[in-house]
């Protein structure tokens, strides 16, 4: 039976635990999560174990990245199952603070970034979001002091925002993206997939199919606009309300007009039923 990870919920306990983990100058990787762990999170943990001597996972449902009309209260919290998965993966430490620890009375600071955070993608539909992400991730980096932090590529704009923040603020953390883990039918794994009704779950893989087909057409030499227009039409026909389907520079997320302006990443966000899904593919 695997030894359970050290679980800490206060900053003094975290500091003591980190001092012990680093006694032999072991490198430390952090996998930040909001819990409700799935195979995509496990992929991050396994990549972390390959690249660092010790692995810490944070579990904190961050209220600062939810708007008033979003699902903070309903966001899935599956502590027992999460602990079992992380124990099986032989994680060294779980940092599980509460909101009062992360945002104590009088908390009045925020990390705001530009660049990829103002790309006109998720920020256009969730203008509050990246301020909440960068603030909590900046705090996690300061608290845990990892050498490496791993994020899934499904939240591609978030990955670019966090990487830019870490570089710009000289935080000493290497931010690494890990390939999207998908269900057998192509749907990107997400904690929010459990909100899908059976009917909407059956339709959801249309999002990935449209991305793949658009990327295939662009690689074959088609112009961006018609390839994206056909992809958007297929997504709408599958029952989604489309927020965006765009081709962006894979590093800066700046808009591009032609394949020569690449490398290209296609990014999509759309809602089916009450569930909003995002995905992306490289071209």
TrEMBL record:
<comment type="pathway">
    <text>Cofactor biosynthesis; (R)-pantothenate biosynthesis; (R)-pantothenate from (R)-pantoate and beta-alanine: step 1/1.</text>
</comment>
<feature type="active site" description="Proton donor">
    <location>
        <position position="41"/>
    </location>
</feature>
<dbReference type="Pfam" id="PF02569">
    <property type="entry name" value="Pantoate_ligase"/>
</dbReference>
<feature type="binding site">
    <location>
        <position position="65"/>
    </location>
    <ligand>
        <name>(R)-pantoate</name>
    </ligand>
</feature>
<dbReference type="InterPro" id="IPR003721">
    <property type="entry name" value="Pantoate_ligase"/>
</dbReference>
<keyword id="KW-0566">Pantothenate biosynthesis</keyword>
<dbReference type="GO" id="GO:0015940">
    <property type="term" value="P:pantothenate biosynthetic process"/>
</dbReference>
<dbReference type="GO" id="GO:0005524">
    <property type="term" value="F:ATP binding"/>
</dbReference>
<dbReference type="InterPro" id="IPR014729">
    <property type="entry name" value="Rossmann-like_a/b/a_fold"/>
</dbReference>
<comment type="subunit">
    <text>Homodimer.</text>
</comment>
<feature type="binding site">
    <location>
        <position position="181"/>
    </location>
    <ligand>
        <name>ATP</name>
    </ligand>
</feature>
<comment type="function">
    <text>Catalyzes the condensation of pantoate with beta-alanine in an ATP-dependent reaction via a pantoyl-adenylate intermediate.</text>
</comment>
<dbReference type="InterPro" id="IPR042176">
    <property type="entry name" value="Pantoate_ligase_C"/>
</dbReference>
<feature type="binding site">
    <location>
        <position position="158"/>
    </location>
    <ligand>
        <name>(R)-pantoate</name>
    </ligand>
</feature>
<feature type="binding site">
    <location>
        <begin position="34"/>
        <end position="41"/>
    </location>
    <ligand>
        <name>ATP</name>
    </ligand>
</feature>
<dbReference type="GO" id="GO:0004592">
    <property type="term" value="F:pantoate-beta-alanine ligase activity"/>
</dbReference>
<keyword id="KW-0963">Cytoplasm</keyword>
<keyword id="KW-0436">Ligase</keyword>
<feature type="binding site">
    <location>
        <position position="65"/>
    </location>
    <ligand>
        <name>beta-alanine</name>
    </ligand>
</feature>
<comment type="similarity">
    <text>Belongs to the pantothenate synthetase family.</text>
</comment>
<protein>
    <recommendedName>
        <fullName>Pantothenate synthetase</fullName>
        <ecNumber>6.3.2.1</ecNumber>
    </recommendedName>
</protein>
<keyword id="KW-0547">Nucleotide-binding</keyword>
<feature type="binding site">
    <location>
        <begin position="189"/>
        <end position="192"/>
    </location>
    <ligand>
        <name>ATP</name>
    </ligand>
</feature>
<feature type="binding site">
    <location>
        <begin position="152"/>
        <end position="155"/>
    </location>
    <ligand>
        <name>ATP</name>
    </ligand>
</feature>
<dbReference type="GO" id="GO:0005829">
    <property type="term" value="C:cytosol"/>
</dbReference>
<keyword id="KW-0067">ATP-binding</keyword>
